[in-house]
Amino acid sequence: MPTINIKRDLLFEALGTTYTDEEFDNLCISYGLELDEVTSEKQMVSKEQSESKSEGASDDTIYRIDIPANRYDLLCLEGLVDALLVFQNKIELPRYKVIQSKKPLKVLVKSNTKEIRPYVVAAVLRDVTLNSARYASFIDLQDKLHQNICRKRSLVAIGTHDLDTIQGPFTYDALPPEDIKFKALNQTEVHSAAELIDIYSTHAQLKQYLSIIKDSNVYPVITDKNGVVLSMPPIINGYHSRITLETKNIFIECTATDLKKANIVLDTVLCMFSKYCSNKYTAERCEVVYPDGAVKLYPELKYRKETVNRKKVNSYLGISENLDNLSSALSSMCLKSAVLKESDVVVVEVPPTRHDIIHACDLYEDVAIAYGYNNIPKTLPKTTTIGSQLPINSLSDKIRNEIAYCGFNEVLTFSLCSRDDVSTKIRKPFDTQRTVCISNPKTLEFQVARTNILSGLLKTTSANKKMPLPMKLFEVTDVVFKDDTSEVGARNERHVCAIYYGKTPGFEIVHGLMDRIMQMLDVKFSAEIGSTYQIKAANDETYFPGRCAQIIYQGNVIGLMGVLHPEVVTAYELTMPCSAFEINLEPFL
Amino acid sequence: MLIPYAKIGFSQEMSKGWTVIDQAANNVIKKVNLVVDKVKEDLIELKASHDQISASEHYNFEALGQPQSAGCLHPSLKVCSDFRQIFLEMGFTEMLTNNFVESSFRNFDALFQLNNEYLNKVKTVHSKGGCGSQRYGYDWYFDEAKKNVLRTHTTAVSPRMLYGLAKDFKLTKYFKPGMEIFCYHQGLKKWIEIGNSGMFSPEMLLPMGLPEKINVIAWELSLERPTMIKYGINNIRDLVVPRFNLQMVRDNPIYRLDK
């Protein structure tokens, strides 16, 4: 869920009303948004970096607002304000229009682009009035779109240019990196594409996008009639055509690997910023000419009709509204609606700002928001069902209680751990056959799915060294093993693990606890085969030689217990002897 | 010889030298005039001075008793038990969620069995639209869906369960409408989100073969946030290693939702 930062004073000015934080929070909630935080640039910098760096940063109040992931139209102040004003019935819904000029700007697509980034869409905003706040919002919106729907520019990349500095027709080509040379935004010199890739490899923001084209034979590039480079998508725009506060006419291009998303992105940028055109809410059409001669016209800014059935929406939401109310509810959500005469349906016009509406139930959702979730009457279900719990969870809970009755403390550890936790630290080779590895671990602590609980308990002990001794800890939870017979190739297994850490090894204590669990499970200690358990001396790298035993239930080894090997203890920065057992609980089901 | 007055305490009187036997007269004669009962006096004195005993000699009822070497359960799991109990009381059946490793298909595309007919239906819904839906409009790749991921939410398990139901009927994590659940945090003095819920969208249900009139609602609640709110824990890391605070776990009261 994206979060946008909006200056409060600008927001209230645009909304034409001043709210208290609480009032605005309530407005957000009623529209399905969340006022996440009230802060300032200064506070944010001092929180994220340091107090000293925050000096000179602005003290203006900033609202951080959480926006639903699919509401691209709310990602900037302009869209948010329009949506809230329509919601409050204060303005008419804007109507977005495409203007067809006599000589539309052309973008000629070369066939090379198929290899790397095949699509481009484009449009022009004419006679725009910018100021620093609008400019900042324009850049912010592009950034938010890049991070979300554009999947970090991999699907779509936006380039915006001062049209008066360049001349159409434009060419969208893909060229070998050595053939691309231009002065990029914020650079003082002309660089080749290869040099730029090198320069940006340490750039805080841009380095994340390099991999999209880096290893390709050709890089996408857009040039004008005179060979001026507009941009090298999805990395950087050219310096020449940069937007300034004085820019009047803006050329917007979106290159993409996903045409549908490119159109959504273009529509969104146009709808949000066409309000600053002298001819409000209009955008000028461009022609994209493909190598085979096919001509596509953009932007689409399409309006589409959907119908909502009164009975269906009422039963879906558990409300009973009439057609007129449903129609005005939808209209307040930027979905202009009207009752279809002599029918039981509302006809809804889905505007180009609402690309998130893909199904009738999206419309139901907006009815629910406009109606107010908290106004939906609460009713008891008409059906009776019999609840039941899973046997494994029911058994686990009972065992957890029994162990706690014995004076052990329950802990909660992560299901992921480091490679070392399941290998070197417990003196075992890394078991590639059984261990599930994470392909892209974020930290060293989370490289694999745990195959034992023991290391988690040892980590917990280590983190609580200040606690009085002895420490008696346990956990009943799942470990994960690779398993070819399972559909996904891995399965969980419910384990019980307990450790004793104190001045003496305390083997008899964990042994006694294990006996107690068996007693509670009604399993007898006996050499006879049957529903009995036996303990057999064993050797295991994790445990001290001669101080380790297998626990056998119904003839199968279900786990180990013993005094931990001193190297295992010291691997977790512990200094006292420690005993433990870990058994599989599933055979007792 | 028969000695008169040989009653209880006689031997004590003799040994202390308070009496003597007159052999000639065969009689017992007092040897002292007065016997003082020290014990009785002491007891009287003690009783009298009881109120003057210094406070330090009283039991100190201001202090706590000796701590018990008690075992305890983890706060998050105490909350979990209560949540489970509530759902059970409402007649819900627990789902099998013991698969941390889940296919990307189920986790993200909200799908179930890898049979071709179902797979194709899902592919169509995602790329071209269908089941009353416009298309999401992206190309859907089987290889991508086949990849395994660590489950990011237990909702992925639901289609699995529903599929089981659907078979009996002969039938992306997308909630439509979706509803977030908020809870008022006394400490932060604001509403914070503790869960998500909603109705499963038809795009997810129909490819499974569930009849159109069947609606499915779902909730997904976080355990940590209610635990933190209830127990006044400020940092979620206090609940897990390495910051895990064993003392806090030990001191934690039982979880009562209504208190």
Q: What distance separates the N and C termini of chain B?
A: 84 Å
Radius of gyration of chain A: 32 Å
Tell me, briefly, the overall form of chain A.
globular
Task: Please write the string of helix (H) and strand (E) elements of chain B.
Answer: HEEHHEHHHEHEEHEHH
Poorly predicted tracts of residues of chain A: none
* Percent range of helical residues of chain A: 25-40%
- The mean pLDDT of chain B is 73
What's the number of helices of chain A? 14
Largest interface: A-B, 69 and 64 residues
What's the total count of β strands of chain A? 29
Helix content of chain B: 25-40%
Please tell me what the overall shape of chain B is: rod-shaped
Could you give a short account of the major beta sheet of chain A? 11 strands, mixed
Largest sheet of chain B: 3 strands, antiparallel
Query: DSSP strand (E) fraction of chain B?
Result: 15-25%
Structure classification of chain B: alpha+beta
Question: What is the residue-averaged pLDDT of chain A?
Answer: 92
Tell me the quaternary state.
heterodimer
Radius of gyration of chain B: 41 Å
As laid out across the biggest beta sheet of chain B, the strand order is 5-6-7
